[in-house]
Amino acid sequence: MRRMMVLPLMLVTAAVFVAIGTASPSSAGMATGAVAYEGFGTVSIALMAQGSPEAASGRMQFRRDVEGEGFDANSGGPVTCYLQVGNRGYFAGEFARTFFSGPTEIRFFNGIVVDGDALGEADQAFVTLGADRPIPCDDPGTMAFLDSVSRPVVRGNIIVH
């Protein structure tokens, strides 16, 4: 009798740890705020994104200054994809006004914002720029890349809820 009770208790305990340790995507969420981070110059973004990958709305404004390189990007556009996973918001969209980085015309963006306030950590953000095609915000490879390159926010606040 004693062995039978131990095994179910171990299975329940394991299930609780798995449930706590994994954040699942939210079908709808929201990220708002304005932040700056250092990454290839000073990058500033203002973001209001909500919804889901299939039904997102919002806008992202992007500004990047690279001193001495003559690269100044200031553009924004609608958020067409949004995915929330715990305190992270992944977003994607297309710039309303394209700009050039060298000979490359920049049309699309993907990004991540991380709300660290609830965990007592710094917020984080990062935006990638694309030329060829839009990449969905829920693309696993892009999400993993954004997780690995997000930078601490040096100014501002982001809220993911």
**How large is the share of residues in beta strands?**
over 45%
Biggest β-sheet, characterized? 8 strands, antiparallel, barrel
What would the principal axes of the Cα set say about the shape?
globular
Low-pLDDT segments: 1-22
Computed over alpha carbons, the radius of gyration is: 19 Å
Query: Total domains, how many?
Result: 1
What's the helix-strand series?
HEEEEEEEEHE
Could you give the order of strands across the largest sheet? 2-3-4-5-6-7-8-9
Class by SSE composition: alpha+beta
What is the typical, i.e. mean, pLDDT?
Answer: 82
- End-to-end Cα distance, whole Å, is 46 Å
Helical fraction: 10-25%
User: Tally the helices: what do you get?
Assistant: 2
- For the secondary structure, the number of strands is 9
Task: Give your account of this protein's structure.
This protein is of the alpha+beta class and 161 residues long. The protein has one domain. Helices cover 19% and strands 56% of the residues. It contains two helices and nine strands. It has an eight-stranded antiparallel beta barrel. It is globular, with a radius of gyration of 19 Å. The N and C termini lie far apart (46 Å). The N terminus is likely disordered.
